[in-house]
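Honest question from a wet-lab person: if I give you the sequences of every part of a complex, can you actually get the arrangement of the whole thing, not just the pieces? Trying it with mine:
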Amino acid sequence: MIVNIGIDSADVDRFVRLLARNRAHLFSLLFGEDERVAMPTLNSKREADYMAGRWAAKEAVLKALGSGIGAITLPEVGVFAHKTGQPYILLYGKALKRSQNLNIERWHLSITHVKGIATAYVVAESG
Amino acid sequence: MTQKDRIREFIAENFQYDITLIKDDTPLLESDIIDSTGVMELVFFIAEEFGVEAEPEDLVPEVFNTLNGMERFLQKNTA
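Yes, you can. This is the full assembly:
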């Protein structure tokens, strides 16, 4: 049964600028250690696409959890990719606890990039 | 110029909003003055302008939703 859905979009150009200002700070705010290790090596344009997609996915998960930034930190929503490129979600800490409280057992995630906009859509499922 | 006034000026410029409507307690997110990516832009501005780098745990509405919240955050982290 679908418990909730979430969707979010992010402007890639804004992430180009954030990366240029302080890449390390942006990484520390968005990513947990596991995500940083798993991140592929990308050129600067692809890196902004990647960051915007990850941001949109994390925000979409927060929406599906009925939360915003604050109650759950962004590194507590992990976004990874299988070898095929298919993205998936791993939750930690308060995000995991809230997901369990909502009886969410599976997450489905899709990320797309069109004309400088990254959009992520998630479905949270139980049972 | 106070820290709050400097941040107010940044918000007005960066998010193209009438500076006279940005009060110290105006909820920036609920008023659609900034969006969630805008919070990151504010975080980076504060780091560059005042030398205080927020941690993931600092990204809460109590800090970044109002000028008063950001001033308290700066006072706490520069004391």
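Two things worth pointing out. Strands of chain A lie at 2-11, 77-81, 87-91, 106-114, 117-125. Chain A is about 45% helix and 30% strand.
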